[in-house]
Amino acid sequence: MKKKPERKKGKKSLLKKYRLVILDESSFEEKFSLMLSRFNVFLGIGTTSVILIVGTILLVAYSSLREYIPGYASTELRRSAIKLNFKTDSLIRHVGFQESFINRIQLVLNGELDYDTLGNEKVDKFLLKNNSNLASLSPSDEELLLRKKLSENESLAKTNTTLDADFQVPLKGLLVLKQNVARRRFGITIQSAADQKVLSMKEGTVLSVEGTPSLGYSVSVQHKNGALSRYSTLSSSNKKPGDYIKRGGVLGLLMDAPEDKIPEGHFEYWLNEESLDLQKLLGL
Q1: I need a labelling partner for 121 at 20 to 30 A (CA). Which of 27, 33, 91, 227 fits?
Q2: What is the pLDDT of residues 73-92, one digit of tens each?
């Protein structure tokens, strides 16, 4: 009989009203007051906690913050992975087609297969049974003999075009840039004074004169044995295409450079489609 009133007292204590008052310390004036109960406090704290938890989850799920979660892959990364997977599949297929094509060509070259029968079902079955590996793609004796003849012809072509070592320095000045074939920089660059004479390195025929007075002229000269020289950054040219020029002949004047810069001339010499090192040829 005594427990029932205790339960009632417990329920009443949750709903019992309390007054929260904020007073001024000096005058004890009431600034703010609020009626509260234990149930309202628990309800407010619980609601606030749930709102914060749900808001944090939504913020992480629908924003870029989710990418900072360990093990999470972004959508862009997934898309790129899928694209790479498709590309690798297509490349594998393409490599398979090329291997099949090479196998058929090898069989035709060896005389095991007639070129008129390519594409037949019998040929496909034959290729499946006799699938050649990389060892079968080694060159035959006839191919090696043909390669040897080609290399000999190339060496003869290079030896027949002898290079005349008698070169004229095209411009008096300081060598600032050397040739570097690995970095695709051909020829040399020489610094000198403006309006300095640019001379032809060897005798030959003027092949072309290109450029404008504002950007500078570029002159190409054809020499014997298929050699070609090129002279760039000229302010003017004394020659025209088709004119003959001797060794040391004046092609034009060096173009002036902008302020705080020194005029430079660029020169190249080509033989058999190869750029020769002018620094060694001119002894610079």
Answers
A1: 91
A2: 667 777 888 888 888 888 88
